[in-house]
Amino acid sequence: MELLLLGLVAALAWKLYQLRRSPHDRPLRSVTLCLASAALSYPVAMPGGASGVDTVAGHGTAKLIQNILLLFAVYFLMCFYLYSSADEEAGRRRARTEAVVVGVVAVAITVAALSVPHETFAGSFSTADMTVPQIAFFYAFAGLYLMYALGMAGRWTRRYALMSRRPHSTGLWMAAVGLSGMAVACAIRAVIVAARSAGVDVPTPLMATVAFFLVGAILLFAAGITYSGARARITSLRLWLQHRRDHRRLEPLWTLLAEAYPENVLPPASSAALDRWRARGVHRRYHRRIVECRDGLVGISPYLLNEDDDAVLSIDSTELVSRLRRASGRIEQGVPAPRPAVPLAMALGSDRQSDVKQLIAVADALRDTASSVMLKEAKC
Fold first, then answer.
1. Is 380 exposed, middle or buried (0-12, 13-18, 19+ CB in 10 A)?
2. Residue 41 to residue 39: CA distance in whole angstroms
3. Mind listing the pLDDT tens digit for each residue in 191-210?
4. In whole angstroms, what is the distance from residue 93 CA to residue 88 CA?
5. How would DSSP label each residue in 307-323?
6. Does an H or E element contain 235, and which?
7. Residue partners of 198: CB distance under 8 A and separation at least 6
8. pTM flag (> 0.70)
9. How far apart are CA 162 and CA 177, in angstroms?
């Protein structure tokens, strides 16, 4: 139960984050309300929450609230698909019709629950006296609506999964299997209610197996609806880590060029605190460092050319490192540029990714040579 609640809360937190960014998105609002209703139903179902509610409002109230919240959860899940349909007006009309249906079901099970003594309604699904018509009606009517709504949602999800590509289709298939599993579990529970209302003794292990199957289906559904978003966050985190690592690896080259040409170091767009804070972001610092390194290489290029070099400089990383150190020394001595700046033809290619690899290779070579020099000085 705790694992299930944790999964629902995690999925709800992600959808609330998305809803905050798109507050007028009807489908997103529906799935968020679905998860919120499902997440709220489980604390009420737990022993501590149920006993607290029953103490205040009477025995059986927690069970009634839990089932009504579950009805709302599957209704909002249906609304997600209805609002996502191509015909928005038809989807809204169908959503209003379904609202009437779920309202009737909620009123019906409430009347059934209130028409029996509290002691009769107390207990769980496995211990309830199904021979009492109102109790059997309560569980059967709510279960049949849940089966209908979950089955419809599962069918619509499979349809969207067939139309989608990975990774979205993977999450949709997970959600579809989870929804179908929940519908099957509800159907089995309806059969159990019918059997117990007729006086048939249903084995407790069978009911426990159905409950376990239902929990697994709910977790699979929650994982499915968050799969594509979680995968995107993981990809974004990997990119963030790569940019952070490459930013640090570029430091030796950037330091050398920034000392030679401090005017190439780009300041924030303005002196405002928000702009200064944004400028410290990993991606911005990474891209800014690449630009500063490229500008610095263009600026220092006149000092890198030998007498017999072509107008366009094309040398490998090792040779470039030795020339960079000599050029940096000449700039410190105040030697004027012997010729105009020239473009650099990177040895690994001309696209941006190859450009970055070349810069990192030069920075790594600078770090290695600096370490070698320090090691020799230490030995001396």
1. exposed
2. 5
3. 888 888 887 777 878 888 88
4. 9
5. TT--SSB---HHHHHHH
6. helix 204-249
7. none
8. no
9. 13
